[in-house]
Amino acid sequence: MAGGELDPKHGHYLGPWGNFGSQTQKGIITYALSANRQKPFAGATRSAVFNTYRRSKAQFLYVVPPFAAAYLLMNWAIEKNEFYNSKEGRMMAPEESDDATQGGPVRG
């Protein structure tokens, strides 16, 4: 068994990581990353700002008009509802028969 020298404190010293005191191996292939792959986020924040602006500008007409229409419709409905539930709105509304609201006869 190939090992290192005896270390009195920790036992056998096997060598640095990847070299455990054994025979040298043949046919080992090593790989390395190129310089541009080592920094995958280089310039990402600057690019993200301009890319986000460009993409948002392209989608503006698809998003804003429906939201604006929905906002205006909802605002109109809320105002109409508040008017109908106010004193003036109740006075302007046509009077309904009290049979259905007061527990009168139900036809069916």
In short:
The chain has 108 residues and is mostly helical. The chain contains four helices and two strands, in the order ββαααα. The protein has a two-stranded antiparallel ribbon with strand order 1-2.
Q: Kindly provide the radius of gyration, computed on alpha-carbon positions and rounded to a whole number of angstroms.
A: 40 Å
- Structural category: mainly alpha
Helix content: 40-55%
Task: Please provide the ordered H/E string of secondary-structure elements.
Answer: EEHHHH
End-to-end separation: 99 Å
Q: Uncertain spans, ≥5 residues at pLDDT below 50?
A: none
Oligomer: single chain
Strand content: under 5%
Give the overall silhouette. Answer: elongated
Distinct helical segment count: 4
Give the mean pLDDT.
Answer: 78
Strand order of the largest sheet: 1-2
How many individual β-strands?
A: 2
The largest sheet, given as strand count, sense and whether it forms a barrel, is: 2 strands, antiparallel
